[in-house]
Design a protein that fits this description.
Elements (H helix, E strand, L loop, with lengths): L1 E10 L2 E11 L4 E5 L6 H8 L7 E6 L2 E2 L5 H6 L2 E3 L12 H11 L6 H15 L14 H13 L5 E5 L7 H16 L3 E5 L3 H7 L2 E6 L2 E6 L1 H5 L2 H8 L2 H9 L11
Parallel strand pairs: 3-8, 3-9, 6-7, 7-8
Antiparallel strand pairs: 1-2, 1-4, 4-5, 9-10
Length: 256
């Protein structure tokens, strides 16, 4: 589905990404973890076209998309959410989601976009709020709206940037089940998250970044037991053991 090959990105004197290479298989959930400042969101920005890489290639479904503008990447079937949700507050919930349908892979007109929006809003549990202004929603509802707007673009690959952040435990549980349902519908997922127990349970594989470099990649149990990951991110070998045993309370790792 996605091949990231030797990606590097610098901002002035900061080397945000350095020779990052990994792949995302069709149909999997790949978790992306690392301390704050590790380059995770920068990597999302490079993959989605917000920032071109200084070096390397990005191949999506067999097509080189390196440096393509975000709207062109979206039309090819790659959608994303953002860590800080910014809905268009003066538009309704339905109108926000319609934008995803209009500018996504299927490029719907207004009528078809409204039908797609209602379908997706029902999926994320916001159907009854479709006519409300987006600015009236609470944090958890805005997270679901952000997800709905991305899903309305009909992506093959969905990039989720901390969709669980700021949610209470009940809301986290509902969002986790929603992510599993989305994958069951055939959408491949690449996600950033600091809630380690959630990542351990959701991810087929995990990639770890530290200071812009890939330091580990593998199945969740392998990554949680990797000494370099424990040192750079988990901070405490005990947390790694708890994660392996499934005994963590779902809290965040060091650097959150």
């Amino acid at each position: 589905m996605l091949h990231v090959q030797g990606i590097a990105r610098r901002f002035g004197g900061l080397q945000a990404l350095s020779d990052v290479t990994f792949g995302v298989a069709d149909g999997e959930i790949l978790g992306l973890i690392g301390p704050n400042g590790a380059g995770k969101t920068t990597l999302f920005n490079v993959v989605s076209g917000v920032h071109p890489p200084d070096k390397g290639r990005i191949v999506f479904r067999g097509q080189d998309i390196t440096g393509l503008a975000p709207y062109r990447v979206a039309r090819l079937g790659l959608a994303r959410t953002f860590q800080i949700v910014r809905p268009l507050h003066d538009l309704t919930v339905r109108e926000n989601v319609m934008l995803g349908a209009c500018y996504g892979r299927e490029r719907h007109g207004r009528g078809a976009a409204a039908r797609v929006a209602d379908e997706v809003l029902a999926l994320v549990g916001l159907g009854e709020r479709a006519a409300q202004l987006a600015g009236s929603l609470n944090v958890a509802q805005k997270k679901r709206l952000e997800l709905a707007r991305a899903l309305a673009a009909r992506p093959y690959l969905l990039l989720l940037d901390e969709v669980l952040a700021g949610l209470n435990p009940a809301e986290v549980g509902r969002m986790i089940e929603m992510i599993r349902h989305i994958r069951a519908q055939g959408v491949t997922i690449l996600m950033i998250e600091h809630l380690m127990q959630a990542m351990m349970s959701l991810s087929d594989r995990i990639v770890v970044l530290d200071y812009g470099k890939l330091i580990a990649e593998g199945e969740p149990r392998e990554v949680a037991a990797d000494p370099s990951v424990i040192e750079a991110y988990l901070g405490d070998p005990k947390l790694g053991r708890e994660l392996l045993a499934g005994g963590s309370d779902g809290g965040s790792a060091r650097g959150d």
